[in-house]
Amino acid sequence: SIYLVCGQNEKTDKPDTHALFSFLQLIQTISAVDKDDPLGGQKFFFSLAAVNPNFTVQDNEDNTARILTRKNGFNRHEISTYLLPVVISDNDYPIQSSTGTLTIRVCACDSQGNMQSCSAEALLLPAGLSTGALIAILLCIIILLVIVVLFAALKRQRKKEPLIFYNDEGGGEEDTQAFDIGTLRNPAAVEEKKLRRDIIPETLFIPRRTPTAPDNTDVRDFIHERLKEHDLDPTAPPYDSLATYAYEGTDSLADSLSSLESSTTDSDQNYDYLREWGPRFHKLAEMYGGGDSDRDS
Fold first, then answer.
1. Where, by residue number, does the polypeptide cross the bilayer (predicted)?
2. What total of structural domains would you count in the chain?
3. Do 121 and 187 lie in a common domain?
4. DSSP one-letter string for 123-164
């Protein structure tokens, strides 16, 4: 239960003699009823659990009691809420008793004793809980809510798959015009623009197998025979390749290579030594060395 007492004047912040309760002023009358036997009338007695310097209880001996003040004034800026434990006992043997706590608030009143304003702090405080306890409970609730929100956000972020774009080059590069994204989308175009193609012989060449050498044959001669067989085999890898060098990248800063050709002539070079490298280089020797007709002319 909450009962109100007038204290200081709210406007002047000074004690108002008309608004203050005097000594042994009646605040409220309380009563007790036995719900099990309300008609028979169980008799109850009222008393304080401990001596209180501010209030007292006067038993009326009719299951009611009066709450009286024990001082002339109350300052609501010093203490705005008082807790008054009251013990209620019956006349049975053994005596049974129960303790209830009355909450008494000090409010600002006018000169006529009418209440003007009261702090809502006492209305929110349950019996036995202080302001610090309520603040601690609120902080715990806020922390739990923050943890739940963070956990939900992290769980949602894990489920979201990142989107990665691969059609973008690094900033500041100068060769962005030479990059053709269509080449990646059309694999056939890559094969058509290939600058180097391996040429696999179409005719099947059956290498001539030399008879097995006797056990007393020199190992060196045996290796030379096998090496000669593979050199004469045109189908053995690596295959001849056709490379195209007439392509330059867009915005390429490389100069022309024509100066290399002007520095030498065909007469200055002798490519006959290419014939000594084996049958694989005969075609190259004919192209650069020329035939007998070229020498005669």
1. 133-154
2. 2
3. no
4. HHPPTT--HHHHHHHHHHHHHHHHHHHHHHHHHHHHHSPPP-
Local structure of 32: helix, strand or coil: coil
Residues whose CB is less than 8 angstroms from the CB of residue 80 and which lie 6 or more positions away in sequence, other chains included? 7, 105, 106, 119, 121, 122
pLDDT tens digit sequence for 111-141: 766 666 665 544 444 445 677 888 999 999 9
Q: How many helices (H) and strands (E) does the chain have?
A: 8, 10
Assess whether 105 and 8 both reside in one domain: yes
177 assigned to some structural domain: no
Question: Please, is 146 exposed, middle or buried when counting C-beta atoms within 10 Å of its C-beta (0-12, 13-18, 19+)?
Answer: exposed
Structure tokens at 142: 């806020």
Q: Which helix (H) or strand (E) holds 29?
A: strand 26-31
CATH number of 29's domain: 2.60.40.60
The string of DSSP codes covering 238-254 is SPEEEE------TT--P
The residue range of the domain holding 273 is: 182-249+261-296
